[in-house]
Amino acid sequence: MRKKLFILAVSAFLALSNVMAQVKIDRGYGNPKTETDGRLVTKRHGSALAIKYGVKAGVNLSNISNDMTFDPGFSMGTGFQIGALMNFHWGQRTASSLPGTGLWGLQPEVLYSYQAIKSDGGDIKLNYIKIPVMLKVYPLSALSIEVGPEFSYLLSSSPDFLKLSDANVKVGDCKGFNWGIGVGAAYEFDFGFMVGARYSIGLTDLGENLKWKNNNNIQVTVGWLF
User: Span of the secretion signal (predicted)?
Assistant: First the structure.
């Protein structure tokens, strides 16, 4: 059931992206200008919503918390992520501001995320498909603070077995739906380049018999908005 819900969420995101790609929407940047009475006047087309599409990639710094009786010696490992996003930005900062410069925004994403965690028995490697949905607050028109849920599907984990504290732990069984919460910040430059940092906290166990949570994931990313 969880797998079906996750696939439905991914399909809905892709369908929305396809529909929005067919619609002419004022993105709030790069509008043509005309000269009127010696002054430059920005033309607007009646929309206070800017919708942009983007791609992003970056570094994951990941760790796991342990609620089991033995200590696996977990420490932070390095991975990466890559994916696509849609950025919705509402309103105008002032009456003369461009559309899409207001206080509120929303940013759903679809990401492939590779996360590695070091342990006494070797590296644990996790491959995810993730759908974060970030509510964004813009204290400045280009700077946003973001928070929201992060829905994940763990595609695979390796190695199959890991020897920890004289016990063979079956890591390969860790698959399925996970969810957590992310919080971060991003800066969007006028010409499309964006940078961001996010901290996500996992709230579900990695496996039925493993009381491990991937609850420390620091993401540093760069991207481009179209």
Answer: 1-21
Q: Which fold has domain 2-225?
A: Porin (2.40.160)
How far apart CA 18 and CA 161 sit, in angstroms, is 42
Contact at 8 Å (CB) between 65 and 80?
A: no
CA distances from 82 to 90, 131, 164, 222 (A): 26, 12, 31, 10
Residue 182 and residue 166: Cα distance in Å, rounded? 35
Phi-psi region for residue 122, left (φ > 0), alpha (ψ -120 to 50) or beta? Answer: left
Give the domain ranges of the chain: 2-225
> What global pTM score does this model have?
0.78
Q: What is the pLDDT of residues 65-103, one digit of tens each?
A: 887 777 888 899 999 999 999 999 999 888 888 888 899
Task: Please write the tens of the pLDDT for every residue from 108-155.
Answer: 999 999 999 999 989 999 999 999 999 999 999 899 999 999 999 999
Q: What is the pLDDT of residue 15?
A: 55
H or E, element range at 5? helix 2-21
Burial of 72 (0-12, 13-18, 19+ CB in 10 A): buried
Query: Which among 137, 121, 86 is positioned nearest to 107, based on CA atoms?
Result: 86
User: Which pair of structure tokens corresponds to residue 37?
Assistant: 């009475």
Q: Which two tokens stand for residue 125?
A: 């490697």
